């Protein structure tokens, strides 16, 4: 069987499980979670700091259960799930960023008093990758999860051309970073 045939059968199976879950079938929901958890975990791992992954994954499935009545069986189950995943990651990052700003503000205020060690905003950076959040989202959906450009655009609520542009830029930056890392390694060996 062709790879596309497997994906179609798997997608149909996921759709059936989500349709049953949307009617309140807890066993179907549990099976849906078992069948999708690894790919959702992988996506979230690339989107949020490692210490937030489990909580965000749990939030995604909680949102899915709460939204079960709104699932339209004409809509792709995986795309529906990843739309919720994208929103959960975005909300978690927004909340996390606000917490970091609050910590930095408190630390900055305390610097003059000598009560705590000074902390700069750069000390609080969690994600040090070369990609922007937007580039990472597109790269994970298209490259990591196998969504088409159109599907990724729908999940993210952007145009297909924007997906292509972000993906191109992400690949360019990753290539440049890889080359810089290689050059740096060579210099250290010399």
From TrEMBL:
PANTHER family: RNA POLYMERASE ECF-TYPE SIGMA FACTO, RNA POLYMERASE SIGMA FACTOR RFAY-RELATED. The keyword Transcription applies. CDD domains: Sigma70_r4. Belongs to the sigma-70 factor family. ECF subfamily. Residues 130-174 form the RNA polymerase sigma factor 70 region 4 type domain. Keywords: Coiled coil, Sigma factor, Transcription, Transcription regulation. InterPro entries: RNA_pol_sigma-70-like, RNA_pol_sigma-70_dom, RNA_pol_sigma70_r2, RNA_pol_sigma70_r4_t2, RNA_pol_sigma_r2, RNA_pol_sigma_r3/r4-like, WH-like_DNA-bd_sf. This is Sigma-70 region 2. Pfam families: Sigma70_r2 (PF04542), Sigma70_r4_2 (PF08281). Residues 160-187 form a coiled coil. GO terms for biological process: DNA-templated transcription initiation. One of its GO terms (molecular function) is sigma factor activity. Residues 33-98 form the RNA polymerase sigma-70 region domain.
């Amino acid at each position: 069987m062709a790879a596309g045939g497997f994906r179609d059968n798997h997608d149909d199976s996921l759709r059936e499980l989500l349709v049953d879950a949307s009617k309140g079938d807890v066993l179907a929901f549990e099976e849906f979670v078992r069948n999708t958890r690894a790919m959702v975990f992988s996506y979230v791992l690339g989107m949020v700091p490692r210490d937030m992954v489990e909580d965000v994954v749990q939030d995604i499935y909680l949102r899915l259960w709460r939204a079960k009545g709104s699932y339209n069986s004409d809509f792709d189950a995986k795309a529906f799930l990843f739309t919720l995943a994208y929103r959960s990651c975005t909300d978690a990052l927004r909340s996390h960023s606000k917490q970091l700003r609050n910590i930095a503000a408190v630390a900055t205020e305390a610097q003059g008093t000598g009560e705590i060690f000074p902390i700069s905003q750069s000390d609080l950076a969690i994600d040090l990758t070369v990609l922007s959040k937007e580039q990472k989202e597109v790269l994970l959906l298209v490259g990591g999860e196998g969504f088409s450009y159109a599907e990724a655009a729908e999940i993210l609520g952007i145009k297909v051309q924007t997906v292509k542009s972000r993906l191109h830029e992400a690949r360019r930056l990753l290539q440049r970073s890889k080359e810089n890392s290689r050059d740096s390694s060579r210099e250290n060996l010399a």
